[in-house]
Amino acid sequence: MTPSDRDATGLLTRPDPFVQLITPAGDRVRDAVYDPWVADVDLEVLGRLYRDMVVVRRIDTEATALQRQGELGLWPPLAGQEAAQIGSAHALRDDDFVFSSYREHALAWHRKVAPAELLSVWRGTAASGWNPYEHNMAVPQIIIGAQALHATGYAMGLRWEGSDAAAIAYFGDGATSEGDVNEALVFASSFDAPVVFFCQNNQWAISEPVGLQSKQAIARRADGFGMPGLRVDGNDVLAVLAATRFALDRARRGEGPSFIEAVTYRMGPHTTADDPKRYRGDAELAEWRERDPISRVLAYLDGSGVDVAGLEREATAEADRVAAELRAAITTLADPEPLSVFDHVYAEPNSHVERQRTNYARYLALFDEPEERGGAAAAAGPEASGRTEGGAR
């Protein structure tokens, strides 16, 4: 990247290039603007970033296997996006709040979400995974792009309270076409909300390529909302760390929101219910394998004289331990009582929900043994047994 690609603040002035500090071959690229943001990242810290990426890739592999073995109903893989998630995660403070989509398992792991909490929603044993206020991370948002609005509202509250914490919203390239994301960008810009919009452009919105919905770099969309757009190599963990620190610093100093486009690639399916071979070829996949986020850091460390064989052993051992914890967590997830699906739908009693609960209890009673049916229907109330106060149907 040349100096002419940026303005005086370091923001990109052309849509094509992106911030890159470590090349796919493992070479260090010097950058006068972004190097200062990672001046504290020595070889030891890079080793930790490498180990974290190895661990979350193993989490992803293990969870995918659990789904294939019938232990999970669904799993959205993150393989290929480890640098985008781990790099940005390390830029956050504990009091920053994360609003994610359904693919940010690395963020959840980094914020110390327990394995059982990570898996419960995908096994169907809980409506959500964890207490958001214990980890300063909202539970995964399934509705595409809705988390951008949540992050903006939270950030506006932070500003009104005088806090220097920030919010960050993660979403994919497909979500940028959603109204929720664009509305969030309008509000965030209008009120100078301390929020970072982090788009992981993994090239595919399920089965549609990013070029179908965006004729230029997604980061350029920020221009129309009056906020800076940063385009970063999403497979370069060091560049992602630098760019996210840059954006968070703007937010903390009251300069408003920023938009980051992390250019990466989804190596696996959209979810385990998807078959990516139906819409993309092997050549494309092979090209992106050459840009693998984990191997490039290892190559850089190797060229810097680090004992990479020892580092790989440490990382593998840690990944094995976490994978074992993940698999063991499955045995701790008890199936909930069927009628509990109606709990906590509303804060106050609601007649419509109670009617649905009664009807469902009546349906479940059909599967009981004859002598048990009376008890199940009675427990659900008089409507379930077909009785009213007057004794008539």
Automatic annotation (TrEMBL):
Q: Which intervals hold domain Dehydrogenase E1 component?
A: 51-311
Keywords, sorted A to Z: Oxidoreductase, Pyruvate, Thiamine pyrophosphate
| Superkingdom as given in the UniProt entry | Bacteria
* InterPro entries assigned: Alpha-ketoacid_DH_E1_comp, DH_E1, PdhA/BkdA, THDP-binding
Task: Show the segment(s) annotated as Disordered.
Answer: 372-393
Known cofactor(s): thiamine diphosphate
> Which residue stretches does the UniProt record annotate as biased composition, category Low complexity?
375-387
Instruction: Name it.
Output: Pyruvate dehydrogenase (Acetyl-transferring) E1 component subunit alpha
Q: Which organism is it from?
A: Agromyces lapidis
Q: Gene symbol?
A: pdhA
